[in-house]
Design goal:
Layout: H1 2-25, E1 30-34, E2 40-44, H2 48-54, E3 61-62, H3 63-69, E4 75-82, E5 87-91, H4 92-95, E6 99-101, E7 106-109, E8 112-123, E9 132-133, H5 137-144, E10 165-171, H6 176-184, H7 189-192, E11 198-201, H8 208-217, H9 221-224, H10 239-244, E12 250-254, E13 266-269, H11 280-293, E14 299-304, H12 306-314, H13 319-337, E15 343-348, E16 354-355, E17 363-364, H14 370-373, E18 374-382
Parallel strand pairs: 1-8, 9-11, 10-14, 10-15, 12-13, 12-14
Antiparallel strand pairs: 1-2, 3-6, 4-5, 4-8, 6-7, 7-8, 11-18, 15-18, 16-17
The structure holds zinc ion (ZN) (2 copies).
Residues 173, 308, 312, 365 line the site of one zinc ion.
């Protein structure tokens, strides 16, 4: 009897020893991040694998992802409070691309890593004026065509207009500020004739696939499960499926390839058939052919890529970039001139772009900057 009791005690002691050794090998950590309302959200070591799975861009997790999950859209300045109570303040734009959190809970700015207790976040002033989101587009299309919003969508409707045809034109990479500047420079005379753009936000990370999934499902990346550019399959119903459930037809006119996998719509890939370096002329021709030769579907989605491509290749200050914007502006006019009365046109972008710090100053996007996160949404009923 005594022997059994001793064995039991020994067993418990060994289990306790192993547990404490394991804890010593992977210490737990926690990090408090300020939310927009001034309260704090706590991230802990046990959250790390989920964060890493959502963020496949680097081995570590982009620190921005935690700001986004804390409720921030635009970040201006951050202040780290270290464990020895010292304070470090940074302008987010200067460090964002190289700032991550590692599995030990350390904040790494380039190669230098520190343990922080908390991070205070200062947002950009304009945040208060953003009342519209890329997630509002799918519910708006559904309501205009008289069907319920896609299951799981969180957006709101942006117009009371009801119609038989919705045409949505995605101008890839044409952020809100870029459109405003282009308008002042006289590059967008046709778009200027439409209703003024609503100031809207896209989702994090502001990249095509993640934004496309948020647009088509009307839901956050964390809900539709397309949280990084390596992911292609939305886990929620899209506007295309919602329409198909009510026997409504959709056509998506794309460039070289689909950014995310789409079902329940006819897909027209345009490609750069003439090899002139842009797919926009091919997308336009494809669109005009459909508008001239076929009955207009209930929902027509048209994706022009050229502005984003020119920004990456030449930078935002290059004449080639301005030319890509001018091309799309007149392409929009050509499309509008073929649309029947009583249709609803929606023009929007998936994200913006900023000039990188590289010597070539080429265009980039993917951060919680106003240039990347703010997008225009134009709602234009055609009477
Ligand atoms: Zn894009
Ligand atoms: Zn891009």
């Amino acid at each position: 009897m005594k022997l059994i009791k001793n064995t039991k005690v020994m067993f418990i002691a060994v289990v306790l020893l192993i547990t404490s050794l394991l804890n010593a090998c992977s210490p737990t950590w926690s990090l408090s991040i300020e939310k927009p309302d001034g309260s704090f959200i706590v991230f802990q070591s046990q959250d790390y694998n989920d964060l890493l799975a959502a963020d496949t861009i680097t081995d570590n997790v982009a620190l921005e992802r935690l700001f986004w999950l804390a409720g921030h859209t635009l970040v201006d300045q951050i202040t780290l409070k270290l464990q020895d109570q010292t304070i470090q303040t940074y302008t987010w734009k200067e460090i964002a691309p190289n700032t991550t959190i590692d599995s030990q809970g350390q904040i790494c700015i380039s190669d230098s890593c520190v343990h922080a207790q908390s991070i205070s976040v200062k947002a950009i002033e304009v945040t208060d004026q953003i009342s519209v989101s890329i997630m509002d587009i799918a519910p708006t299309i559904a309501s205009a065509l008289g069907i319920p919003a896609p299951n799981g969508s969180q957006g709101k409707t942006l117009t009371d207009v009801t119609t038989n045809h919705v045409i949505a034109i995605l101008l890839d990479g044409l952020g809100y500020q870029i459109l405003s500047d282009s308008s002042l420079r006289g590059l967008t005379p046709e778009i200027d004739k439409l209703n003024p753009p609503l100031l809207a936000s896209t989702v994090y990370p502001p990249v095509t696939r993640v934004a496309m999934a948020a647009f088509s499902t009307g839901a956050l990346p964390e809900e539709n499960k397309v949280t990084a550019t390596s992911m292609r399959n939305p886990a929620l119903e899209t506007i295309f499926t919602a329409l198909a459930n009510f026997e409504k037809q959709s056509i998506a006119i794309e460039g070289e390839s689909l950014p995310i996998n789409l079902i329940d719509c006819r897909i027209e890939l345009s490609g750069d058939r003439d090899g002139n370096g842009s797919t926009d002329d091919n997308v336009l021709n494809n669109t005009l052919n459909i508008l001239e030769q076929e009955p207009l579907p209930d929902f027509l989605f048209i994706h022009f890529h050229g502005i984003d491509d020119a920004g990456h290749t030449y930078g935002l200050d290059a004449p080639e970039y301005a030319a890509a914007i001018q091309y799309v502006d007149q392409a929009v006019w050509q499309v509008i001139s073929k649309l029947p009365q009583n249709s609803l046109l929606i023009i929007f972008s998936d994200h913006g772009m900023h000039n990188s710090n590289s010597p070539a100053k080429l265009g980039e996007h993917g951060h919680l900057y106003s240039e990347d996160m703010l997008i225009p949404i134009i709602i234009y009923p055609i009477h």
